Backbone:
């Protein structure tokens, strides 16, 4: 069984972009990127406790192929939206598997 066969969901990243409105003020909007395959799972109690002790709130972990995701990005998987809460981690340091910790911000 390959890693790619475990990626059973599609995610759409949304990056924060700044633009100038008609009044000359800066506004921030979310712009959607290209969808990619992923797998999202709920963090267990021990993992949540470790994050809570570090002062970080995280509820879910996403696994995918390496890509660029910033702390300010959001990811939509199905009807749920998550906020990235930490830097993406290249699990094996070989550019094959990336894990991203997230907090759920909206359930559709």
Residues:
């Amino acid at each position: 069984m390959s890693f790619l066969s475990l990626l059973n969901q599609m995610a759409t990243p949304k990056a924060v972009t700044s633009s100038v409105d008609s009044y000359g003020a800066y506004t921030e909007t979310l712009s959607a990127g290209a969808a990619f395959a992923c797998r999202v799972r709920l963090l267990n109690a021990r993992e949540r406790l470790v994050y809570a002790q570090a002062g970080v709130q995280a509820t879910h972990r996403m696994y995918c192929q390496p890509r660029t995701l910033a702390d300010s990005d959001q990811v939509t998987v199905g009807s749920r939206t998550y906020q990235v809460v930490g830097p993406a981690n290249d699990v094996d340091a070989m550019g094959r598997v990336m894990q991203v910790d997230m907090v759920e911000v909206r359930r559709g």
Notes: The chain has one helix and eight strands.
